[in-house]
Amino acid sequence: MTDSWLPSILRSPLAALIGESCTVTLVDKLDILEPHCLRHALSKGLGLGIVLGGCIVKLPQLFKIVKSKSVAGISLSSYVLEVLANVITIAYNFRNGYAFTTYGEAVFIGFQNFIITLLMLVFTGRASLGAVTGALLLVFTYSLFDISLVGGSLLSTLYGLTIPLVISSRIPQIYTIHKNKYTGQLSAFAVFNYFFGTAARLYTTLVEVDDSLVLLGNVLATIANGVLAAQMLYYWNASAPKDKYRLDTKKNE
């Protein structure tokens, strides 16, 4: 390791994140404008930030649901489709050996989406269906990581299907908001974090992942999340419609 002015307790994790050569260039030599390492470090920093953001992005949504014991304005089908997309995304990236910072948020968001899906079923009187759904998802997840059950070509096909799946997961929610002119229990924090996260993920994908499927998926996800963010702003001060507004997930599917 090159002699560095930065204490090893700080330098070591930085080198683990951006690599030894770029640490030498950017930190030890203070050549902070070197194009390759600057792009690489920015991508790694954004990727780590997105992953950390993914740990908490759905917590406000969870708290709103638990506190209100209501899933008004939230589409069950959106969450089911999103959970499936999360699981496939994790398996595809993991088995292709991509850096965790380029997809890690899917792990944490997927888990939070799964919990929200179960809560939606519980609060609409379908707890038994929630148990079955959980068991089936575990079996499906295991099969994706077992190459003897799901080969590489099949996994690539499934990942390709997540591109329309991600868009499909947003459409019911977009339609629900448009129909009711109200965002209900939908968390603004989650919506805006999703939008900014997918926008930042476009950059990290361009820098670190040479995969057109991953890039296309991120482009379309950014557009779909942008529509939801725009709706959230447009209906920010809207109140629930009188009389007819009694939403549950059955009406929102």
Automatic annotation (TrEMBL):
The chain crosses the membrane at residues 71-94, 151-171, 183-203, 215-236. Keywords: Membrane, Repeat, Transmembrane, Transmembrane helix, Transport. GO terms for cellular component: membrane. It is found in: Membrane. InterPro entries: MannP-dilichol_defect-1, PQ-loop_rpt. It is a multi-pass membrane protein. Belongs to the MPDU1 (TC 2.A.43.3) family. This is Mannose-P-dolichol utilization defect 1 protein homolog. It comes from Coemansia erecta.
